[in-house]
User: Fold this.
Amino acid sequence: MDAVSLAIIEQLQEDGRRPYAAIGKAVGLSEAAVRQRVQKLLDQGVMQIVAVTDPLTVGFRRQAMVGITVEGDLDPVADALTAMPEAEYVVMTAGSYDLLAEIVCEDDDHLLEVINKRIRALPGVRSTESFVYLKLKKQTYMWGTR
Assistant:
């Protein structure tokens, strides 16, 4: 990826709604050239442009990180977790847990159902530990483009 594409990404990290003309001015390209580059970055999966919300303030009353210990191959369990609509992200980790899944639910009953009936029921899941979020203090996606 060249320096211009990285600069476009940084512009969009600052403001995902920044007009292509303004981005073009900042990076030295035409509006059309920026539009083409952005579309290519989207098509390649390099970035996404989405509205990021705080789930706790838009009707989802329960959010938790679930640490999962797995026996055997991680992939089938990770794939099953990624298929769950409540799983915002799933990562394979090194350390106390094999997988971490951020789960967003409407309420405690929904969270209990997801953990107890769906996650713990997956073949290969040995144990889970849940960390319920009480308040979101920081959520940023401004790590740049090193």
